[in-house]
Fold this protein.
Amino acid sequence: MGHKFAELAFTDRVKALQTANGSRRNYARMEDVPDYNDVIGPSEAAFITARDSFYMATVSETGWPYVQHRGGPAGFVKVLDEKTLGFADFTGNRQYVSAGNLSGDDRVSLFFMDYPNKARLKLLGHARLVGLEESDILAKLELPGYRARVERGILITMAGFDWNCPQHITQRYTLAEVEKATEGLRQRVAELEARSEEGSAAT
């Protein structure tokens, strides 16, 4: 019982390193308490659905982890209920490494990043590939107006999550975020340029 992400991530070897480096006592407090971080709450749902990308790790038959970027319009990852999220899997480079891995081992690790606010949410779960014949489920994951071919859907049953501290996250901004933040400045520059041109014309 306790922190559901820590139950999965804090193995005996991890705990041994925590003990050796002096952090085990703090993390031990996450155990022997009622379960928490085991359902997707309003804060997690809002954070996930605001993202336009995330990173997903799967496990291969050779035991190697494979990390892949997934992207789309903000909100392309859907929170379907307190334990389930999903997204439409669009056609990419057609290597099918993640899909192939998931056909044999359903475990995934997800990283959702908010670079401007230096926040990150990590989530562990079990994924299921959704075929095109499962139209009722795909309908819940579709993105009307987004021009990309859907090859399948991916549903993830969340096993545990954790919020990370903001240390060492470099702030980055998308073009849309930069344009929004500088909109007032650009308008002011345009006004000053127009006044300057009017003054030049008057003389």
Notes: The mean pLDDT is 94.
